[in-house]
From TrEMBL:
<dbReference type="InterPro" id="IPR046348">
    <property type="entry name" value="SIS_dom_sf"/>
</dbReference>
<protein>
    <submittedName>
        <fullName>SIS domain-containing protein</fullName>
    </submittedName>
</protein>
<dbReference type="InterPro" id="IPR017552">
    <property type="entry name" value="PHI/rmpB"/>
</dbReference>
<dbReference type="InterPro" id="IPR001347">
    <property type="entry name" value="SIS_dom"/>
</dbReference>
<feature type="domain" description="SIS">
    <location>
        <begin position="31"/>
        <end position="174"/>
    </location>
</feature>
<comment type="similarity">
    <text>Belongs to the SIS family. PHI subfamily.</text>
</comment>
């Protein structure tokens, strides 16, 4: 394959299309239900996954949900009726596991997005949303994505999260305009 930007980009898009095509039609239903019905939502992810989780938090805020990013100074406590949503693409997150323990003790529900649903961290969750994409847990050997390390999972997160937002928007009776009205004016 030529190492041109268009050729590499098309190969990456093919990899991403393969991930999306592998998603069952109802793959996100449990997560969507949990997000729509949670009192408060606390979101956690590390590294590049954390960036995708922050992007989702922003969109959930635009939908009018009470959402917070773990480690921000203004995160309120969570408890019964609330949701902790953790990203653990490779399936093992020491900090995620600790946060899940705190959330469980407080009575909150836990959701995990991962590519490795049988791994340690997803096994601690009430809701597991699986995005079947390459992460650093399986980025070696044959048949790997043109994208390095966990980039395919992280890119799929961004795309699939935006689709989840569209489904939530309909479920919550929101519109593009009501979402826009919540966008910051401090930029």
């Amino acid at each position: 394959m030529p190492e041109t930007i268009p050729a590499l980009s098309l190969s990456a898009l093919d990899d991403l299309a393969g991930v999306v095509k592998a998603l069952p039609v109802d793959a996100a239903d449990g997560l969507i239900e949990a997000l729509a019905t949670a009192g408060r939502i606390a979101i956690y992810g590390a590294g590049r996954e954390g960036l995708q989780m922050r992007g989702l938090a922003m969109r959930l805020f635009h939908l009018g949900l009470d959402v917070h990013v773990v480690a921000d100074m203004t995160v309120p406590p969570i408890g019964p009726g609330d949701l902790l949503f953790v990203s653990s693409g490779p399936g093992a997150s020491n900090i995620g596991d600790a946060l899940i323990g705190v959330a469980r003790k407080a009575g909150a529900k836990v959701a995990v997005v991962t590519a490795q649903p049988e791994a340690r961290t997803p096994k601690l969750a009430d809701i597991v949303f699986t995005i079947p994409a390459q992460t650093m847990a399986d980025d070696r050997g044959g048949g790997v994505s043109v994208l390095p390390m966990g980039s395919l999972f992280e890119t799929a997160q961004m795309l699939v999260f935006e689709i989840i937002v569209l489904k939530l928007r309909n479920r919550l009776g929101e519109t593009a305009e009501t979402m826009r009205a919540r966008h910051t004016n401090l930029e």
